[in-house]
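Course assignment 3, question 2. Fill in each field.
Student: A.L.
Task: Predict the tertiary structure for the chain below.
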Amino acid sequence: MNRPYRGDRYGYVVDFVDIESEFEKTNKDYFDELQSELGDELDKYSDLFKTEAEITADIESIKDALFHFDTSNAEVFSQQITQIVDRAEMRTIVKALNDAKSLYNLIRLAGQYELLAKLDFRKLNQLSTEASNHLNLLNQREALENADDSINVLNIALEDVLFTFRKVSESEMIIADELRENLRRTREGLGGNFDPSDPAFITLKEELERLFKKKNLSEITQAEMVENIVTLKGIHSRARELERKNQLLRAKYANDEKYARLHKRLLEKGEPTANERKLFEALSSFKAEADACISQNARILTNEAFAKTEMTRLIIEQLKNKHHLPLTAENTQFINNLVMKEYLAEFHGHQAA
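Answer field:
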């Protein structure tokens, strides 16, 4: 209760009379109310109401999980965990640190403040961020190695690359920023490519992947950063040139990516002609007929066998009969497969692989 202090007109003393017992009574009343409402379901919420012994046991478990690491020094701790390549081990560490955060809130909720002295909860909260960042990096690397479309995963990984250096000087940070910027530019340069099957694109992507997977980017030295910047600039320059040529070719086909990809696959094979201009003229004629056929009956693509027969007819009619390109049964089938893959992918709303 509040009462006037001495003779001062506005002076008051806040008197916390029996506040501890009142707090415990309030918690007990709240617990009893939950128990009456939830019944057997209360077991699911048991973690909200742990005894001192249970909390102490949890603290000991957290200490055991973090025993091998210097949790008193964030910089040393970061250096130690960045050496870990086993995701299971990192998940154990992250779980222990997350448990510590939950336990801190639970202790405060229960009013058992004396237990806060048994663990440096504020420091562990700081370390939790470091550990989560490294686990994310390991997850990204794992996804990069296993993904079918690894360039998309690589885009994510490079977007979130973390730079945490053991020795940080102003010059290092300037170089680190330049490296980050070159990573971003290179990622964007490759990420916009509409032809992931292009051998030139695959080569650039693999070079970038090797650079990313070669070493933990948070551990690279200043000299390695400079070397990586040079490598990235080279990849970015070649990616820009590839994109320039891609856009020129796409424009020839009225910005239809399907036919730009088809053009490149046939040119790579050298069949039915190695003359790029003649190939373009033949494919343009075929495109006009194929697009008109599908425009008149969009449902044709729901019957793949029928659509394939129609496309074969148009391929022979336009490429062989009209443009006199040497077609064989083999290369006709090859062209047909490419055409069907492109149109079906577009029909189903995704890009042909």
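Instructor remarks: Residues 256-347 form one domain. Confidence is low (pLDDT under 50) at residues 41-46, 157-168.
Grade: pending
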